[in-house]
Amino acid sequence: FTFGTKDWNLHNNPLPIELLSFTAEPTAQGVLLEWVTASEVNNDFFTLERSKNGIHFEVIGYVQGVGHSSQKQFYQYTDSDPYTGVSYYRLKQTDLDGTHEYFKMVAVQFRKAQQASMLVYPNPVEQDVLNIRMAGATTDKKINLSLVDVHGRTLRSESIYADDAGHVAYQLNRLSALPAGVYFMVLQNREFRITERVIIR
Q1: Which of 18, 76, 102, 112 has its CA 20 to 30 A from that of 172?
Q2: 165: burial class by Cβ within 10 Å (0-12, 13-18, 19+)?
Q3: How far apart are the C-alpha atoms of 74 and 23, rounded to whole Å?
Q4: Rounded to two decimals, what is the model's pTM?
Q5: How far apart are CA 21 and CA 96, in angstroms?
Q6: pLDDT in tens, the chain (201 residues)
Q7: CA-based R_g, the chain, Å
Q8: Nearest 5 degrees, angle CA 91-CA 92-CA 96?
């Protein structure tokens, strides 16, 4: 068979794009779709489609293609309102002449994060230790802890871990070395970001 012509010389009928990868990943903002092309010929645009069952799809967005390229091109699109649970995404590519092709779909599981909450005490901090408690189920147990000053500079940064119930109990030490003032405690991962104002005396 040939592609779009009766000419049996396939070199005269290049594929519109050479797709290297197409992935879907759950994030705090939704489902991040990323794809990479190795080359493009007459590529007009991409269409992102979503399905709950892998059979019936709906269009969720469009991304403009570069047209012609012999170098790697990187694309991304975020589905900010994804289905809860397992869903399927597929990529459709449309040429400048209106012809199109579909690529293999990918599956992803998305769970909306429960509202996370944080308690820090004692606050104001008058000793050397700040206790940190967090509640809120998370599928990503690794959490980045940052102590930030009012100028946005990160003074302390550590990785901590939630237990199976999504709870954190942690002590931040050596705070007496910091100047008195207002700071911000930030806990974040791919699913949430919460901030608490901290006063050190």
Answers
A1: 112
A2: exposed
A3: 12
A4: 0.54
A5: 22
A6: 333 333 334 344 456 889 999 999 988 778 999 999 999 999 999 999 999 999 999 999 999 999 999 999 999 999 988 998 899 999 999 999 999 999 989 999 887 655 678 899 999 998 889 999 988 756 678 899 999 998 889 999 999 988 887 888 999 998 888 999 999 999 988 778 888 999 998
A7: 24
A8: 140
Look up tokens 């879907």; give the residue: 24
Check residue 128 and give left, alpha or beta (phi > 0: left; psi -120 to 50: alpha).
Answer: alpha
Q: Which own/partner contact pairs does 116-120 have at CB distance under 8 Å and 24+ positions apart?
A: 116/166, 116/187, 116/192, 116/194, 117/194, 118/185, 118/187, 118/194, 118/196, 119/196, 120/185, 120/196, 120/198
> Can you tell me which residue has the tokens 């892998």?
54
